[in-house]
Amino acid sequence: MTYHLQWIYGFVVFFYPGGSSEIRRDSLPWHVLLGMFIYVVAVGNACLGFLEKLTFLEVNGLAKYGSEAFLVNFTAIATVLYGVFVFLTILSQGPTADDHSYSAIA
């Protein structure tokens, strides 16, 4: 539900041609923060899904150190590392203190 509200708010504020640049400038940090929060929650949800899949496979007789278990664990670790990489990339491209300008897409 929160994702849909963020999407609607972002679409109205950032793509509506009549919107003021002051509203865009003031809401951009909150828009980025909420988007980062949703992304972290999505990566966590994916990791819980891998854990659930591995649990169901082990209940049905999967070897603890079998090739399928290693594949699921490797995929989960790769997902976490990718999520961390994207998160750090977002943080590294933050605006400087002097750069609060926003240019509309048009």
UniProtKB/TrEMBL annotation:
GO terms for cellular component: membrane. InterPro entries: CYB561/CYBRD1-like (IPR043205), Cyt_b561/ferric_Rdtase_TM (IPR006593). Its main location: membrane. The chain crosses the membrane at residues 30-51, 71-91. Residues 1-91 form the Cytochrome b561 domain. It is a multi-pass membrane protein. The keyword Membrane applies. It is found in: Membrane. It holds the Pfam family Cytochrom_B561. The keyword Transmembrane applies. It comes from the Eukaryota. Keywords: Electron transport, Heme, Iron, Membrane, Metal-binding, Transmembrane, Transmembrane helix, Transport. Its cofactor is heme b. GO terms for molecular function: metal ion binding; oxidoreductase activity. This is Cytochrome B561. The gene is LOC102596012.
